[in-house]
């Protein structure tokens, strides 16, 4: 039986680019797949656009007027409703390349989590770097990713078992939802990195992950505090996982 796909998107004031993203995702999904969208009380035209698409496509499941004011909790909300065997994270402003789902599904047959490369672009989709992996030095490994995370949700897909063990996310802003899912997969499953790019990763003024790519700087004490929290949360997870398994 062909696995069901759940694509999970968290939105907030994304009217400028979201149509292009939806148009790149939906043609790659089958009739039995779903696109789960949690909107964190957008104040622009995002909700209107989402309702327009959902009225024409029954695969879209909307959860509007959420009041998290937090992208991590917004993503967690979308993921809570995911029912697929394979789960894809996606941002509201990127563009999926053709055959992304087909190719990643093939790898997920023998992996628990897949992280693929992306083409970095400006807001008009002009290429600024052909490989996010090379630009950012992406690699596997728990310690490597605690030091500097390679796990960006827009380039991730994973099996439902990873999500089942990863939820709920730790109550801290020190660990993003994508990093947490990646670390859980490193601990209990098989992670595969693919050097082929399968999205245009659009960087613009409001891109959330700019903070990790030369954006807001933190001092050494803030960084050390964050690392300690990560190790603490991972230790708690391992104790719980071993107890339950």
What does this structure look like?
Strands 1, 2, 3, 4, 5, 6, 7, 8 and 9 form a nine-stranded mixed sheet that branches. This protein has nine helices and nine strands. It is of the alpha/beta class and about 240 residues long. β2, α2 and β3 (about 60-65) form a beta-alpha-beta unit. The mean pLDDT is about 95. α7 packs across α8 (about 175-190). About 40% of the residues lie in helices and about 20% in strands. The radius of gyration is 17 Å and the shape is globular. It has helices at about 20-25, 45-55, 70-80, 100-110, 130-135, 140-145, 160-165, 175-190, 220-245; strands at about 5-10, 35-40, 60-65, 85-90, 95, 115-120, 125-130, 155-160, 190-200.
Strand fraction: 15-25%
Helix content: 25-40%
Low-pLDDT stretches are none
User: Can you write the helix and strand succession as a string?
Assistant: EHEHEHEEHEEHHEHHEH
Shape: globular
Let me know the number of strands: 9
Judged by helices, strands and strand pairing, the structural class is: alpha/beta
Radius of gyration: 17 Å
């Amino acid at each position: 039986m062909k696995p069901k796909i759940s694509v999970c998107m968290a939105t907030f004031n994304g009217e400028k680019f979201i149509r292009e993203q939806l148009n790149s995702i939906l043609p790659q999904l089958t009739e039995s797949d779903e696109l789960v969208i949690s909107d964190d009380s957008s104040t622009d035209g995002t909700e209107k656009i989402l309702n327009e698409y959902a009225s024409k496509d029954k695969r879209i499941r909307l959860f509007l007027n959420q009041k998290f004011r937090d992208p991590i909790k917004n993503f967690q909300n979308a993921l809570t409703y995911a029912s697929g065997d394979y789960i894809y994270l996606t941002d509201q402003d990127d563009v999926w390349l053709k055959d992304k789902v087909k190719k990643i599904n093939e790898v997920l047959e023998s992996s628990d989590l897949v992280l693929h490369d992306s083409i970095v672009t400006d807001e008009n989709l002009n290429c600024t770097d052909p490989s996010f992996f090379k630009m950012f030095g992406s690699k596997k490994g728990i310690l490597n990713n605690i030091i500097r995370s390679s796990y960006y949700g827009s380039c991730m897909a994973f099996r439902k078992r990873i999500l089942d063990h990863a939820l709920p996310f730790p109550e801290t802003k020190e660990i993003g939802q994508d990093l947490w899912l990646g670390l859980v997969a490193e601990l209990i499953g098989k992670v595969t990195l693919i050097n082929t790019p399968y999205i245009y990763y659009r960087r613009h003024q409001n891109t959330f992950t700019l903070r990790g790519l030369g954006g807001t700087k933190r001092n050494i004490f803030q960084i050390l505090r964050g690392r300690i929290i990560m190790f603490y949360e991972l230790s708690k997870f391992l104790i719980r996982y071993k107890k339950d398994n």
